[in-house]
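User: Please predict the structure of the protein below. I'd like the answer in structure-token form so I can feed it into my own downstream comparison script.

Assistant: Understood. Taking the following sequence of 286 residues as input:
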Amino acid sequence: MRTGNNTNDVLQLFGKSLIEQGKSVGTFKTYSKVVEHFLNYLIVNKIINNIDDIDAKGVHEYVESLKQENKSSSTIEKHIAAINIFLCYIEKPHIRTYLPRKQKENTKLRPQSLTKEEEIQLLHEIELDGNIRNIAIVYLLLHTGIRVSELCNLNKTDIKIGSSDEGQIVVRDEGSLHNSRMIPLSTFALKHLLRYLDSLDTDSNALFISSFNQRITTRAVQYMLKKYNVHPHLLRHTFCYRLVDHGVDLNTVSKLAGHKDINITKRYVKKDAEHNMTIAIKRTFA
């Protein structure tokens, strides 16, 4: 059974991450099949429309459905293990409150990101196509790390331009009307955003507008990115990795990414970096 429009790409990226993490062929097939079944259940039962809608209630309902089907304990545990890892991959580990925690398994999977060469190729392709709005969207996602839902909710008034040609965006917490974070704009992101703003001819307060003159949807952004074989999660992960790799402290990265748990941010520290930090501490305090 086919999943929703945005789930196939996520499933492929998730499967690729499992392989890159050294999972066996059997584990790869099992986890991919379980997660596909899980997403199908949520979509068919109209619990979600896309990946971003997954919440604790939906996960709980799915696990309960397995029990009602009289699935064996081992089968349910297999589903739980796969879903736990998937939830961690899409940056929703807090949802696991409905599932038994298996920390050893969950910490193995690290988010996938673009290589520098892949990033350059993506930007080259999107600029070559020449769609001013799409160029601005890709640069914002890649250079600010905001979630696709946060990008779609941006208003023109959320763009703050300083006197010295520096810019920031205000990203509001979707769960609160009062919490927000400020994210500085890179020179390139600001350049393409200003060019896009100059091209607008609408009274709408929404920053990104669809071809129907309505606020753009997450699904529309995902569909656009599919042409370039990327997904919004991939661009967000790349942003976080770039900051960590350039020595930005984890607290700062966590705040910029809007992570509610710094343990999510710690996933972007590569194993060799962890090893080097351990050696440095031992030498310092020997």
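That's the full token string. Residues 1-5, 99-108 have pLDDT under 50 and may be disordered.
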